[in-house]
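pasting for ref
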Amino acid sequence: TTVSVDPHSVLTLRATYEASQKCSGLVLGFVVHRSTDNVLVYDANYSLSELGRDELERGETITVDFTFAAHLTRGQYHVECHVFHAPTHSFVARHRPAAVFTVDESRSYAGVADLELKAEIVTAPIAVA
């Protein structure tokens, strides 16, 4: 299901992870790509210890909320969530797309990021009569 949002909307992706064995050294990744051309928009990683856990026991399930602001221009985006095992430099799991959303805007901008650009004339030539 694709969700349509306004630019700058705050979104939350809830991801659930289950450990198939006792593990440590895990990194949870959150990656956003623009769907039309697969341009990397954002890539963030959190070690399990940054989230307050050093390891997971076999069969243990954790749920993580990734909350972000869609400061993006018009288009469709997809999110990847992955689990990376830092000691072996290998991916344990990847889910793509974990979510798909579309940013709707009334003005067409190019690029990926919406910088909320404002323009105003602050000085103008004096009209000669």
